[in-house]
Amino acid sequence: MAFRILGPLEVTIAGQEVPIPAGKHRSLLAALLLRVNSPVSMEELSDYIWSGAPPANARGAVQTYVARLRTSLQMPGLIVTQRDGYSIEMPEFALDLHRFRGLVARAETLTRSGSAAQAALLRQALSLWRGPALANVPSERLRSMAAQSLGEERLNALERRIDAELSLGRHRQMLAELRALTAEHPLHERLQGQLMTALHRSGRYAEALESFRRLRQVLHDELGIEPGEDLQRLHQQMLGGQPLTESDPDGDKSLPAWTAACQLPLGVGTYVGRSELVSEATAQLLHQDVGVVPIVVVGGGPGTGKTAFAVHVAHRVRAAFPDGQWFVRLRTPDGGPRDPADVLAEMLVSAGLDQRDAPDGLGARAARLRALLADRSVLLVLDDAFDATQVRCLLPGTAECAVLITSGTNLWGLAALDDARVLMLEPLQRDEATRLLAGLIGQTIPHGILAEIARLCDDLPLALRLAAANMMGRSPSERARYLAGLRSRDRLSLLAVRGDQAAAVRTSFERSYLTLPAPAQRLFRLLALVPDGDCTLESVAVLLRVPVHEAEFLLETLIAAHLVRRLIPGRFRLDPLLRLYAREQLATEEMSAV
Description:
A 5-stranded parallel beta sheet has the order 8-9-10-7-11, with helices on both faces. The chain has a 3-stranded antiparallel beta sheet with strand order 1-2-3, with no helix packed on it. It is globular, with a radius of gyration of 30 Å. The chain is α/β, with parallel strands linked by helices. The chain has 26 helices and 16 strands. It folds into 5 domains: 1-146, Arc Repressor Mutant, subunit A (Orthogonal Bundle); 169-246, Alpha Horseshoe (Serine Threonine Protein Phosphatase 5, Tetratricopeptide repeat), CATH 1.25.40.10; 275-425, Rossmann fold; 430-500; 516-593, Arc Repressor Mutant, subunit A (Orthogonal Bundle), CATH 1.10.10. α1 crosses α3, α11 (275-286) packs across α12 (306-317) and α23 (518-526) crosses α25. Helices cover 52% and strands 11% of the residues.
């Protein structure tokens, strides 16, 4: 549930926009949102909706509007009837205005004025604005009473953010934005002073002085006044050749120069489905509590698109992490786990440290990375984690950063000890799978054929994309032959792109299979013998000729690796494509014993 008033009024529930077409309904909802969790009297609501000229039946009309809003929002208990009015009851973070004010307040509590963390928080707060507040709310009374004051809050936050940016030496980067802002607010002295400062520090001394001269002329001609004392003092400093401080005097001069780098891979343009999970991951990464690093873990079986999901989400939120977005692979090319010490050395280089200056030892490198990330706003995408131990030493220590982790194994320990939010990816819904195929192939193919391909691919995003790649640009007869091949037992060989070993379902399955201990690998192979891949705990114990508790342990190992699904308590399933892969392994390694 999300309500936005910093721009046009918008409502989204579970990632889907809820239209509020009637203007008076929007005015009513806006009035309640501006006083969220507090009652608004019937008289005030009437005043807001009709801008001071309510009709004779205003009370009945408001009651009707409330009833229609409740029907549109479909959330019982959201709009509450009070003694003489109504209130809207919800968590404050669901409203963009409260998130904005919370971020600004956090920025003001930072003891180090002008720090990167302060700039990042204010940047994140301002990113919530999508235009003038309440832009599509027709009530003149609301706009005059609320929108104007909210605009002042935005401008104040913008001024403080620019001060922080300038104190960090980002004067050249700020010139274009400041020119646009001073053109929009020609009489705003603080913005004019910031432009003069940025010009002067960029070596454009004549332009800085000319900027002051123009402002002085405009103030004299239009208002008959002189610039304020602060601006005149700044002007005198420039005339006297006095240096303007370029960086935070309290900053750590021992820190290496910082370069904001975006290392994110290319996102896919045809991303389909999982809108609720995308919204949940986005909200978690952007929601910051003091001292708590937002961590999202994306789990799921091989081929479910964990990396694609993480990259898609990372691109959505990257503007909120201006000091960089890092993408770190945690597996070696052969699928084994990378040494965390080597990963830390790579991350220290990303943070600006010379590779030769990286300290020895895992603990020392982890501590150095936390120090370099302190007061920075960096998004870390840690791809394909082996286990929680590998990840923990890579985590930053300050809440301005956020971490997005993908893993094909069980990382619930991060949820237990590190407050991570764990999201599990399942195969796509059948309609989503067919939509993805249609979008990728780009040709008119009957829906029934698309649905059959989706079924043969187990609705796995990787398999669907590989099937689509093999059908692109093919003639109808070639597509028919390919489909006939998918119906055969050699389906795994066809769900691959020739010449690209990474683009193969078999490779994805193999990476998960090879991480298993030998007894679990053997159970996985033997499950190929179970009809339809469905089994019970007792049947697995008989198959392995072991006690039930040993069979349960091995099944849980396969479940943690997302190679087997638990259908209901005591009943399990090996999905068709995985069963084909298990049959291949059985033929290779076990046939002589079966």
